[in-house]
């Protein structure tokens, strides 16, 4: 009985390997090493020129006749790998992973995108043949470091089945331009659920976010600038759609710069969209932003001028008051003796000096005071 069970258990494996069981076959025991992503085998005698084919792709040469590398091999999708030997002529194949579980139970149409600069979101649909109690989990694996991260923020359908997931703060997820493998695994009490996976470069799945425009302007020039944010793409061209109040909308292209100067502005509305240089990824148009250049400038300068003038007026008044005050005190100190003095200048001056009256500031008083000061120095 135990032997029968053992035979049953071994049957699928021996079925798969039957073509390499021939003792005369030049390669034996073809297998996938998922950790190193290598298709490998044992050599049997002198063998020359081995190549491998993944499904219907182009053949790849084996390294040292020992293995073929499949960096992008899928751990979920059942794939046919064929190994061909030129001399002696021989060919065999295996399926990896081996078909397992209910094929229609796996998540379908897995798609992922980077969006709003910081976020990575994947969506999928529940497999058509999935059992009622199926639940899905998403994780990503760095294509180079093989570091894995579980996704935490799930979206569920009305049955509570996960149908999407979001990573926040993806800048920590992958700093380098290599890709990520996204895998949705499934669990169920009723059936084995195969996994579903896709391999993607984050730069290629980014939905670019159009930047915000800030403007500095005066009556003749409007200087627009913006800051483009993306962790995975770095070279951009921009399109500006500018609508001045009286004219038809005009589209301007700005190549790999993040500013644009508009002449004779007045009020205008502008929208921007961004196109990545290599992959031509194109963002949506931004929401229109409205700028009122000369009006703002007018109001600004007018209020500035008014306040400047007011300040100048106050300053002048203060200065005048100060001068007057100082003159009064000076005159009070200097002038009282004047009526008793002899004419200090000379005989041309009238000899009858006016008596000084306190509280009156006549032009004559000023002249006298000035003469006194000059003489003292
Ligand atoms: C795998 O591919 C080989 C040809 O490359 C073909 O002969 C074989 O039938 C395929 N196996 C399956 C299960 O499709
Ligand atoms: C999945 O995608 C395929 C091809 O794009 C489409 O035909 C199918 O309807 C999609 N399935 C679901 C459940 O959305
Ligand atoms: C643009 O500005 C809006 C509102 O100030 C803000 O919510 C948004 O995050 C900004 N977008 C970018 C890309 O900076
Ligand atoms: C407006 O700004 C531009 C550039 O900043 C400058 O060249 C120009 O002279 C300014 N015009 C006025 C009227 O201030």
UniProtKB/TrEMBL annotation:
The chain crosses the membrane at residues 308-325. It is a single-pass type I membrane protein. The keyword Ligase does not apply. GO terms for cellular component: external side of plasma membrane. Residues 27-97 form the IL-3 receptor alpha chain N-terminal domain. GO terms for molecular function: interleukin-3 receptor activity. Residues 1-17 form the signal peptide. It holds the Pfam family IL6Ra-bind. Its main location: membrane. Keywords: Cell membrane, Disulfide bond, Glycoprotein, Membrane, Receptor, Signal, Transmembrane, Transmembrane helix, Ubl conjugation. It is found in: Cell membrane. PROSITE patterns: HEMATOPO_REC_S_F2 (PS01356). It comes from the Eukaryota. The keyword Metal-binding does not apply. Residues 109-198 form the Type I cytokine receptor cytokine-binding domain. InterPro entries: FN3_sf, Ig-like_fold, IL3Ra_N, Short_hematopoietin_rcpt_2_CS, TypeI_recpt_CBD. Cell surface receptor for IL3 expressed on hematopoietic progenitor cells, monocytes and B-lymphocytes that controls the production and differentiation of hematopoietic progenitor cells into lineage-restricted cells. Ligand stimulation rapidly induces hetrodimerization with IL3RB, phosphorylation and enzyme activity of effector proteins such as JAK2 and PI3K that play a role in signaling cell proliferation and differentiation. Activation of JAK2 leads to STAT5-mediated transcriptional program. PANTHER family: CYTOKINE RECEPTOR, INTERLEUKIN 5 RECEPTOR SUBUNIT ALPHA. Interacts with IL3. Heterodimer of an alpha and a beta subunit. The beta subunit is common to the IL3, IL5 and GM-CSF receptors. Belongs to the type I cytokine receptor family. Type 5 subfamily. This is Interleukin-3 receptor subunit alpha. It comes from Propithecus coquereli (Coquerel's sifaka).
